[in-house]
Amino acid sequence: MGLYTRNVFSSFSSASSWFELYAAFSTLMMLLRTAINELIPPQVRSFIVSKLDVLFSKYQAKSNITLRITQLWDEFNGERNELFDAAQEYLPTKISHTFKSLKVGRLQNEKHLEFAVDTSEKVVDEFEGTKFTWKLDEGSKDECNGYGRCFFELTFNEKQREMVLDRYIPHVLKTYDTMKAQRREVKIYSRINNYWNASDLSHPATFDSLALSPELKKEIIDDLARFLERKELYKKVGKPWKRGYLLYGPPGTGKSSLIAAMANYLKFDVYDLELSAIYSDSNLKRSMKEASNRSIIVIEDVDCNKETHARSKLNGPSCNTDSDSDREGPETSTKSFTLSGLLNYMDGLWSSGGEERIVIFTTNHREKIDPALLRPGRMDMHIHLSFLKGKAFHVLASNYLDIKGYHPLLEQIEGLLEKVDVTPAVVAEQLMRYEKPDVCLEALVQFLKEMDKSNLE
């Protein structure tokens, strides 16, 4: 064997190709493997292999990093760690049929089964071709109680440190934000006793169900989509990330339904702010500050508050005075709510108190509102919601009567709608009077003819 080995290395020095080197090396390895199998007993071979495994495992452990992601970031103040919540939602999406231990259940009012990571099972996630190992540790029985010390352990090779911090963890957080947005229940908040009180926004309106012209729907949806995509642009030009909409038109034209559709489309919570309940500028500032990001702040019937009236049309005190200054409340000693206070929120320093916000004014009388409130930068898009016309009626016919194509009475109804001023709310009420579509449309034709006749008289 020694002679052959010398010949191998001798041939290596004079080899003229890599193929000859490979063939010689393969022959040497085969001889060594045969010698080990014949000369070393199986028990000794097993012992050597086990020691090599231990040595390799210790080396691997030394090269691994483990991050501990606790449930609470600040246990004293009870501040939750959002990365823990993100991992808790993200990891079940990586669970497969190969797992032997899972937590499973169905939450109240939910239709589908929910899966969760169990403490006895590790979850392996792959990102950009690299594998990451997660494990949930619940600590002692008294530690993980909703207030305590549950934590995830994320293990990865030391070489991946930069990738984990710069790309992988942001990927987990971004996925979590997307999951929350898709499933979250939209809330509506009302101001009661100087505090915001929440309830579920159960309004079912969507853009598909709105009785608006297709052109106006597209214009609104495109504007909302542009707003969501322009965070960096707003930051670059030094403007707060917010947008203002003015909804104006006669009562019953769908202003509240449009707000609900926008909230359901964006998955933004709605804060319904009544200016009549605001008794000072500081109270207004506090109310706005307490509203969350990704929200719609609605000030309905803004023309009903005299502070917002056009100053050129006021008959009496100026807009910066408040005859109700003796209104009772915890801040009655401060300066009363003023138009300038509202303007400061719209585009002054106060407006930087939240991100990704939409402010909506509604009014039946746009001409009464002070122009200072309506200029671009405060109310960026003015949306006129008017009386029902032909194209929008097709939406109501589909929603209420399930008429999606041709019907012999549709053309006649469209013609009548061009002659009379009738709101979507009035027509919707007419469509609910009968169950049969034909009977319902015939009754609507008679109703619209009566309206047209009365207009002529």
Please outline the helices and strands:
Blueprint: H1 2-14, H2 18-39, H3 42-63, E1 64-70, E2 72-74, E3 79-80, H4 82-90, E4 102-105, E5 114-117, E6 123-127, E7 130-137, E8 151-157, H5 161-183, E9 187-192, E10 195-200, H6 214-229, H7 231-237, E11 242-248, H8 255-266, E12 269-272, H9 281-290, E13 295-299, H10 339-347, E14 357-363, H11 371-374, E15 381-384, H12 390-401, H13 410-417, H14 424-431, H15 437-456
Parallel strand pairs: 9-12, 11-14, 11-15, 12-13, 13-14
Antiparallel strand pairs: 1-8, 2-3, 4-5, 6-7, 7-8, 9-10
Helix pairs in contact: 1-2, 4-5, 12-13, 12-14, 13-15
Domain AAA+ ATPase: 241-389
Family: Belongs to the AAA ATPase family. BCS1 subfamily.
Keywords: ATP-binding, Hydrolase, Magnesium, Nucleotide-binding
Form type = elongated
> Which structural class do you get from the secondary structure elements?
alpha/beta
Element string (H = helix, E = strand): HHHEEEHEEEEEHEEHHEHEHEHEHEHHHH
* Overall average pLDDT: 78
- The helix fraction, in percent, is 40-55%
Gyration radius, rounded: 35 Å
Number of strands: 15
Distance between the termini: 122 Å
How much strand?
Answer: 15-25%
Largest sheet: 7 strands, mixed
Number of helices: 15
Uncertain runs are 1-6, 140-147, 314-335
Strand neighbour order, sheet with most strands? 10-9-12-13-14-11-15
